Amino acid sequence: MKTISLQEISTALKVSKSTISYVLNGRGDEKRISINTQQMIEEYAKAHNYKPNPLARSLIVGKSNMIGFVLPNIADFFFARITRSIEKKAMQSGYEVVFSSTGEDKEREEKSIQSMLDRNVDGLIIASSQKNEKDILRLTQNKFPMVLIDRKYPDISTNFVGLNNIGGITMLVEHLINMGRKKIGFVSLNMDLLTLNERLNSYEETMKRNGCEVKKGFIQQLEYNHTDNDMERIIKIMLSKSIGVEGLIFSTQFLAADGIRALNKMNIKVPTDMAVVSYGHKNDFDLFKVPLTAIDFPVEEIGEKAVDILLENMKDINMKKEEFYFNTELIVRESCGSH
Amino acid sequence: MKTISLQEISTALKVSKSTISYVLNGRGDEKRISINTQQMIEEYAKAHNYKPNPLARSLIVGKSNMIGFVLPNIADFFFARITRSIEKKAMQSGYEVVFSSTGEDKEREEKSIQSMLDRNVDGLIIASSQKNEKDILRLTQNKFPMVLIDRKYPDISTNFVGLNNIGGITMLVEHLINMGRKKIGFVSLNMDLLTLNERLNSYEETMKRNGCEVKKGFIQQLEYNHTDNDMERIIKIMLSKSIGVEGLIFSTQFLAADGIRALNKMNIKVPTDMAVVSYGHKNDFDLFKVPLTAIDFPVEEIGEKAVDILLENMKDINMKKEEFYFNTELIVRESCGSH
DNA sequence: AAAATAGGCACAAACGTTTGAGCAAATCAG
DNA sequence: CTGATTTGCTCAAACGTTTGTGCCTATTTT
User: Fold this and answer.
1) How far: B16 CA to C11 C1' (Å)?
2) Domain span at residue A195?
3) Most-buried pick from A164, B98, B221, B250 (CB within 10 A)?
4) Is position A61 within any domain?
5) Which nucleotide lies nearest residue B3, CA to C1'?
6) Cβ atoms A78, A85 nearer than 8 A
7) d(CA A54, CA A65)
8) Are both A123 and A245 inside the same structural domain?
């Protein structure tokens, strides 16, 4: 596993380390190293497969050719896809990616960020838990190249790429209304994330705008780690005579799948007894017992755009903050009835 | 983003760097540093939030407290889950994880491995493309701590954790036979991976053992990047009168989903016209139009076991190679008819 | 009282780079 | 032929650690 060092080339070739370093970094001409010496060095380096030690280099230049990606959970398909696209895009520009999952936990997010900074990453992409205002603030104040994705802090101006949640939810609500459902429930997660809040607010506004009352009980929030029973319980509530929901919006694709599972178990017919839509798409929604109408969005593009902006930011540390929102797309299937 | 260094503590406290280093590494007593000095140093370090620079440390001690995970594709849910479990388990032992996707590409796998070695990872977990015998051999010869998962090289003795493919496929074949299907097709990917080969061989053997002929056309292999049309085409072939398959085994969960999609489109009734099983499980198989019978396996456990073995190997560079195979579980649903 | 031991720390090299400054020899200008 | 410039390289510090050796003083042993 031993790899050759500058020192070894130096003694072998009887040429100083600096000369070698200059040549190998393409500064040979600039430093007026003779053609002969340059060739000799380059040949020797190639022949012995010299690779500069990135640690030593990083230690001195303060850069690492790595970008860090801090995310809630790599086993979340949404983030896994983004990770892949970030990695791909970064690689095209010669950067490597290090990532770290935080489990939506503030302490672990802090640790991850610190660890990445310690390792001299050149920039950060963060899907924050939104509980870590401190670090995000610190990073922006220090003008550290960074872009937030999916989750942002309302009070901090940063680069950001996310979704047009409002447009997406509007489409869902209006689709349900068009299919003849007025009493529409909204099930979301009990997490204080801006994305989720935007979705909730957009639901309420769109309902009002269309003259649909949002009755008490129409909105249900589950814990992040809810059980199947929890889901059944809230569906039961929304179906009760006093509430009588006829359509359901699930604010994430995972909730939607869980919801369908509960509806199946409770023997509630979709779409007859209950129309269902999902904000967010999963691969096999089309294969479900009743194929699910859902909002899809360009996941890979989020990662790519984030890298684009980050690279810009790394070039120009004083660049104007950039926000980018991807539009979503309504994929109509059968879970709200047919036209 | 500036962080305090040993040097700065040294000048501030008028104590040599070495003393500080010893104290902060818990070797103060051993090095007979007086209680007073130790306290002073520790307090100052805590107050100024001193964190040793991992690069500098790694450069000199040759270790990094990182383990590397090389995998085909992080957006593959199977590997994403493993990644998560590796990360979790490694963290419990104070290690960080760096990962890199290779896209099943030999060159990229080589690059990833080299890059990780350059960064002084203390050990490697590799889900290899199985096209990189050279590196794997080199690593084992150099006694570099490593464990292969899911994919292995028949000719190289390494640590390995994978699945009991033979047992899994046997269960599937025999389940189909028990459900009255004798003419069973097998669709897999046209990739030279040991796991896939094991599955194929096990299929053939189990068929023979149960007196079922494996006719020409029963076995179909698709390209990794096949289209929906490709899938429909091979299903059409297997359904042709001369072949007349009554049951299908898909050798991966992704193939299974694609297969179901094709069957739906072709209006072939499951299980009446075609019984279907999947080797490998996906989250929403239970929500499908006809819930899918599948082999499930302990994905997270693969990652955990790999970390366990790797840590052992890092402790004892000469340990005996360990192979571990997880058993699979048959989850019976409705895609082969009811009992 | 001299020698040995213990206590408490500092020195300096090492890891493998990068980089500004500088130096000797060769070439040029006048 | 002298001084200036160019050519071709070397020196050494720096990045932030770790670690073996060694030094000085104080205490104990003999």
Assistant:
1) 9
2) 165-297+330-336
3) B250
4) no
5) D16
6) no
7) 9
8) no
Closest-approach nucleotide to residue A60, Cα vs C1': D15
As beta bridge partners, residue A149 has: A161
Supply the pTM of this predicted model.
0.94
Please indicate, yes or no, whether residues A150 and A272 belong to a single structural domain of this protein. no
Instruction: Based on the fold, state whether residues A259 and A281 are members of the same structural domain.
Output: yes
What is the side-by-side strand order in the sheet with B293-296? B219-222, B184-189, B247-250, B275-279, B293-296, B329-331
Residues 6+ apart with CB under 8 A from B199: B165, B168, B169, B188, B251, B279
- Residue B259 lies inside a defined structural domain of this protein: yes
Neighbours of A229 (CB within 10 A): 9
Q: Are B158 and B169 in the same domain?
A: no
Longest dimension (CA), chain B: 90
- For nucleotide C10, the protein residue with its alpha carbon nearest to C1' is B16
pLDDT tens over chain B, length 339 residues:
778 999 999 999 999 999 999 999 999 999 999 999 999 999 999 999 999 999 999 999 999 999 999 999 999 999 999 999 999 999 999 999 999 999 999 999 999 999 999 999 999 999 999 999 999 999 999 999 999 999 999 999 999 999 999 999 999 999 999 999 999 999 999 999 999 999 999 999 999 999 999 999 999 999 999 999 999 999 999 999 999 999 999 999 999 999 999 999 999 999 999 999 999 999 999 999 999 999 999 999 999 999 999 999 999 999 999 999 999 999 999 999 975
Distance (Å) from the alpha carbon of A63 to chain B's nearest alpha carbon:
11
Neighbouring C-beta atoms of residue B338, cutoff 10 Å: 8
